[in-house]
Specification:
Blueprint: E1 2-4, E2 43-47, E3 50-54, H1 65-89, H2 93-105, H3 112-128, H4 146-157, H5 167-176, H6 178-182, H7 216-221, E4 230-234, E5 240-244, H8 260-273, H9 282-294, H10 297-308, E6 314-320, E7 334-341, H11 346-354, H12 356-361, E8 378-389, E9 395-400, H13 404-410, E10 413-417, H14 418-427, H15 431-436, H16 440-465, H17 479-483, H18 487-502, H19 506-510, H20 518-533, H21 547-562, E11 567-572, E12 575-580, H22 583-603, H23 606-617, H24 622-635, E13 640-644, E14 647-650, E15 656-659, H25 664-672
Parallel strand pairs: 3-13, 8-10
Antiparallel strand pairs: 1-9, 2-3, 4-5, 6-7, 7-8, 9-10, 11-12, 14-15
């Protein structure tokens, strides 16, 4: 379960909301700038409000030769599964991706003006894994026309030998894709958890977890055997079936399923990684291979048990993991990262993890939900060498695995993504704090202690937030099953609240993790600025769909409602601000909501979480949003961030080298060429 920059950075001096495309129905004005030097630092490129930045992984250079080879093959396995997310996001995603990549890989003869528009749109398409904004879930459409696209594609095709399509086939393909590219009313929203008019949440969502025509009512009657890793389809006679995501077993007993091509490629790279594995890591890799072959839920649990018990310097995550994109909160998107321990900042994580029971004992919820004998979660500060699939530079913390069966019995791993934090710090400015800080004290505290508060929020969220609490034994399934589409919002809010509750505990100063008591104030200022500033990323509508944004607004508005004199909307010079009136009253509200959310999770109380989220987390004042959008526009700051990975290369002698690419397009085409050689540039 991740903590994204919507959680941390948005609260501070920049609008690091998420990896997304330009808001609304356009790819927005193009304004490119490059600060890349091959050092892994700074802004690489900007397209309208979307910025591309390097993700540094300098710790890689300190690895042994064996470890560098391990990292190389694990990275190849990450790249292998990257195409899956495009299909999960849209039934047109992979087809759209091929047409766009065909053009940008073979631009000869294409009108330069058209090519520039197609190239910029393609970068935004890669950044969002499709043409729906990664944060708002709203569709964005190109600035070029369907005729431009068809003409450019035909020119590109002429430069390709042995292309997969003839000219006639390509023309037909582009025309069939027309509505998915150009019609803003066609499948306008990726994930719709609260569609207007009480419409079906599955049919209102354009993602590809359910075939066209499948309804929520039908799925709720289906007993899914592969809830996390399958697409629900419908046979000609109207029967629902699960199309399982798996490669199949070598003996043929388990047949290949959906995404077999990509999973088989990943398996081949994982097998090459095994000879270089860290101590105890080979069985972990074997367990993942087994899961990708069978797709069996038990094999995924077994992998989680093996993985959480292994804490090597070169680590990885690879699988169908987060369920945010599914309106039901059931289907896992494909994602991966490969990481190297950042020894310099690992001290912070370790100290918090070893005191996990202390914080559990002092949680403000009922004793019946307090976990005893807490196994300290593995907590590591890391730099990522690669991030693929449904993963982004704006993920600054993660706590895995998600399955409660593993978490309660075997513990979790928590990651603090220091490379991402540094990359965003390097690229952002301070002008947004000038605009949205309530007063001089707010600005001073945020400037002086903001980075420290940011790291602590991430660490506390992941280590003692997600890993805390226990549920009523009467729940026979994971709490997510009972809480459905509201489960992710609840869990992210619960983890945030644990950070907000414990930041005031003197234990943190005793451990040497807090330099001054005002760090707590800085965390609150950053946290409660979010419900205001995040509106700058939602250009249309009156509802919030993204779970982290919902949780931030729910927390603030709940406290404002339940504890008078805690928080308030304040007006000055015609502008709106969020004002923390009284820190301790606000903390009182934090404790009240945290206790209730733990009760809801512990009892699987769907009605209660639905009422809370619907009342406080979903709806906002569009007039306030319009004000924020206008203020953000004047600042001319990036709203969305996309990370560009380091590049690993292995020569004929087996030597691995790392570099930082200065060209987003070349990197993405290298990834695409793993499956389509004709897309090599």
């Amino acid at each position: 379960m991740r903590i994204r920059s919507t959680v941390c950075f948005l609260l501070s001096v920049a609008f690091t909301l998420s990896v997304s495309a330009a808001p609304g129905g356009s790819s927005a004005a193009t304004g490119s700038s490059s600060a890349a030097t091959g050092s892994g630092k700074g802004l690489l490129e900007r397209i309208g409000p979307t910025a591309f930045i390097h993700v540094p992984a300098e710790s890689f250079r300190d690895l042994s030769t064996r470890q560098q080879k391990l990292a190389y093959w694990l990275t190849q396995a990450s790249i292998a599964i990257d195409p899956i997310i495009y299909d999960q996001q849209s039934r047109f995603g992979l087809r759209q991706k091929y047409v766009l990549e065909l053009i940008v890989s073979h631009p000869q003869g294409v009108d330069p003006k058209v090519y520039r528009k197609v190239a910029d749109y393609t970068k935004l398409f890669w950044a969002n894994h499709g043409n729906h904004n990664d944060l708002t879930a709203l569709k964005f459409v190109p600035e070029f026309t369907s005729e431009d696209l068809e003409g450019a594609a035909i020119h590109a095709l002429k430069n390709v030998k042995n292309a997969r399509m003839s000219e006639a086939e390509l023309r037909k393909e582009v025309r069939e894709l027309g509505p998915s590219f150009f019609d803003p009313a066609f499948e306008p929203q990726l994930t719709a958890k609260n569609p207007e008019g009480g419409k079906d949440i599955i049919q209102s969502s354009s993602n590809n977890f359910y075939a066209p025509g499948v309804t929520l009512a039908e799925v709720e009657k289906l007993k899914e055997t592969h809830a996390l890793n399958s697409r629900v389809a419908k046979t000609k006679d109207g029967k629902l079936v699960e199309e399982v995501w798996r490669a199949g077993t070598p003996d043929g007993k388990v047949k290949p399923g959906l995404y077999a091509v990509y999973l088989s490629k990943a398996i081949s790279h994982l097998q090459k990684a095994k000879p270089y594995a860290e101590p105890g890591q080979a069985p972990v890799i074997d367990a993942l291979i087994r899961y990708y072959q069978t797709g069996d839920a038990r094999d995924w649990i077994d992998f989680g048990i093996q993985w959480v018990g292994n804490n090597p310097p070169v680590d990885f995550a690879n699988g169908f993991i987060e369920v945010y994109r599914d309106a039901r909160g059931a289907k896992g998107t494909s994602q991966s990262f490969v990481s190297v321990t950042d020894e310099k900042l690992n001290k912070l994580m370790t100290k918090i993890a070893t005191n996990a029971q202390y914080f559990e004992n002092r949680a403000p919820w009922a004793d019946q939900y307090k976990k005893q004998g807490v196994k300290p979660p593995l907590a590591t500060a890391i730099e990522t060498i690669v991030e693929t699939g449904d993963f982004a530079v704006t993920v600054v913390g993660d706590n895995l695995p998600n399955e409660n069966e593993v978490r309660e019995k075997y513990g979790t791993k928590s990651f603090l993504f220091t490379g991402s934090t540094r990359a965003l710090d390097e690229a952002r400015g301070s002008s947004s704090l000038d605009e949205f800080a309530y007063d001089a004290e707010d600005k001073t505290l945020s400037t002086k202690y903001g980075s420290e508060a940011e790291d602590l929020l991430t660490a506390l969220h992941e280590i003692i937030g997600h890993g805390s609490g226990k549920v009523n034994p009467k729940l026979t399934e994971d709490p997510f099953t009972y809480l459905k589409e509201y489960a992710s919002t609840l869990e992210e809010a619960r983890a945030d609240l644990m950070a907000l509750w414990n930041i005031w505990d003197p234990k943190l100063q005793e451990l040497g993790l807090v330099s001054h008591p005002d760090v707590a104030k800085a965390m609150y200022l950053r946290q409660f600025r979010a419900p205001l500033t995040q509106l700058g990323s939602i250009p249309k509508g009156e509802t919030i769909e993204e779970d982290h944004q919902r949780d931030r607004q729910m927390i603030a508005l709940y406290i404002m409602d339940k504890v008078p004199g805690s928080l308030e909307w304040a007006k000055r010079d015609g502008k709106t601000f969020m004002h923390v009136v009284d820190y301790q009253k606000t903390r009182q509200g934090v404790g009240m909501l945290l206790a209730e959310l733990m009760r809801i999770k512990g009892e699987g109380d769907y009605a209660a979480i639905k009422a809370l989220v619907d009342k406080y987390g979903v709806h906002f004042d569009p007039k306030l949003r319009d004000e924020v959008v206008a203020r953000v526009k004047k600042l001319d700051l990036p709203l969305y961030w996309h990370g560009v990975n380091a590049e690993l290369a292995m020569d004929a002698a087996g030597k691995v080298t790392m570099s930082y690419p200065n060209d987003v397009t070349k990197q993405r085409l290298r990834y695409a060429a793993m499956y389509d050689q004709e897309l090599k540039r």
